[in-house]
Design goal:
With about 625 residues, the chain is of the alpha+beta class. It folds into four domains: about 300 residues, FAD/NAD(P)-binding domain; about 140 residues, Beta Barrel (Elongation Factor Tu (Ef-tu), domain 3), CATH 2.40.30.260; about 100 residues, Orthogonal Bundle (Arc Repressor Mutant, subunit A), CATH 1.10.10.1800; about 50 residues, GidA associated domain, C-terminal subdomain (DNA polymerase, domain 1), CATH 1.10.150.570. The chain is built from 21 helices and 22 strands. Strands 1, 2, 6, 7, 8, 9 and 20 form a seven-stranded mixed sheet that branches. A six-stranded antiparallel sheet has the order 14-15-16-17-13-18, with no helix packed on it. Strand 7 and strand 8 form a beta hairpin. The chain is globular. The protein starts with a strand and ends with a helix. The model has no long low-confidence stretch (mean pLDDT about 95).
Length: about 625
Amino acid sequence: MFPKYDVIVVGAGHAGCEAAVAAANLGCKVLLATMNMQTIGQMSCNPAMGGVAKGQIVREVDALCGYSGIVTDHTAIQFRMLNRSKGPAMWSPRAQNDRMAFAAKWRQMLENNPNIDFWQEMVAGLVVKDGRVRGVRTSMGIEIEGEAVVLTNGTFLNGLIHIGEKQFGGGRAGESAARGITEQLVELGFEAGRMKTGTPPRIDGRSLDYSKMEMQPGDNPPGKFSYTDTPRLENQLCCWSTYTNQQVHDMLRTGFDKSPMFNGRIQGLGPRYCPSIEDKIDRFGDKDRHQLFIEPEGRDTVEIYINGFSSSLPEDVQFKALRLIPGLENAKMFRPGYAIEYDYFPPTQLQPTLETHLVKNLFFAGQINGTTGYEEAACQGLMAGLNAALAAKDQEQLVLKRSEAYIGVLIDDLVNKGTEEPYRMFTSRAEYRILLRQDNADLRLTPIAQRLGLAGAEERMARVHAKNRATAEIEAFFRNASVQPDELNGYLQSVDSAPINQKTKLHNILLRPQVDIAGMAGVLPELATFLRPYEQEFVELAEINIKYDGYIKKEEEMVARHARLEDLQLQPDFNYAGVNGLSIEARQKLASVRPRTIGQASRISGVNPADVSVLLVYLGR
């Protein structure tokens, strides 16, 4: 009935979709198994992609030939570049999406890939022989052979939904939980844990009074995520913001005694940086209001997502509290918010390739590893899919360094430090964030995609070469061209910058924080004429390179200094117990994680600089 597949992907959420695409685009025969073909690429929570640090991840996924950026651009209803008031290392793209169109586009793109087959049924277990995964077993008892398996089960592993004192099994509202995989993995020696996440109620947009809210328009002109020729967003929709108040908080408190969070029925830890509304009120009792964002679910629906009002309180308490919020006095609820508990597997049980230590050719990606967020899941799926394909071909697997990508930072954090609460990416987690900007992800990562032979990488590299040429030409122009005081002093005065009193290179003037290329081009016809043929993206990158050249060089020097440790290899069977001088904790952690390099060993929680020095001495370094 089934051929033998190179890669079997279990789950068709953001991680599963990217895993299937990555393996297929390396030429592998892929099976994507899901419990429901109608929910492929589903946005289970908020209808948005990107955000602080997350937007950088989406652009990195796109640069590695993933599809998340393409799907986002095709289905966006609003685009904003966040943190524009800060330095470019902090700029983060974010798009509001049409939820139904997003899932439909994902399914269309997957079905258009001839290397991907589909099977709709719950996967209840794995086929493991001699320490190696050999395929999967479905709930109907069907065994499907595969060289490698990627598990991307999201919140479905023994999922339990909570609304007030009510609880019922499910991986998502209206969908069954997945059972059998956790139990088998534990029998194989894996450690499992429980985590929790939540979602807010959905309401009827026709019942809202937007005159009492603040409009949140998109950028004009809007940007996009993908480096490919995706359509530019037109006819953006507005989001809105409003605030809770003391009355809302008092009403919510009336349900605290029935809250599964506060009465102990929920055992798993929830996301620290995306707490429920009841958690906000409990933890931040000094605040008399909390901001909420009113976000449309799509162009052809009246359904509204209330960002910031995640809750597992009884549905009647949620409803009464909603109607005390300005603009929501007559709100009609489509469905209440809920919390969901699910199984995860501490990611220290993984190699940096996302392959498990215990079972060869078995990979984990997404919430099964303790992360939260579509973007975090997508990038893990991409990497797990790539490495599963490479493993199936007996080729060397790919590990991105912390200096190469936010993806590298995320995976390095997970496998070396683990996580006891849902892990979310922030710019502050990346020590090389000036190098890892959203504008240069293609320059950093598309050459890797080309080297791997990913489908579409050659065409993308043509644009990378064009981008490099253009930015070099623009930077050269600024280094060589000069301007007279009378040509520019009026502009300088308008931006509160000191006038020049002699002919000056444009490069030196652009180094001033108040000055930008757009302003200079507005008063210098020769500059405007020179820049006209170039894409705005290329001009912006050249400006960043000029303004932040000193900072960029400093980070590159830091990377070079730390590269020495990353190049010192450690054998997988290294006997840490036999190294005198290592602390007991270091021996245990090193034996558990099995780092590939001294650099990775230095980042493991519990391994201190003295332990690293002992290893260096032992290796004769």
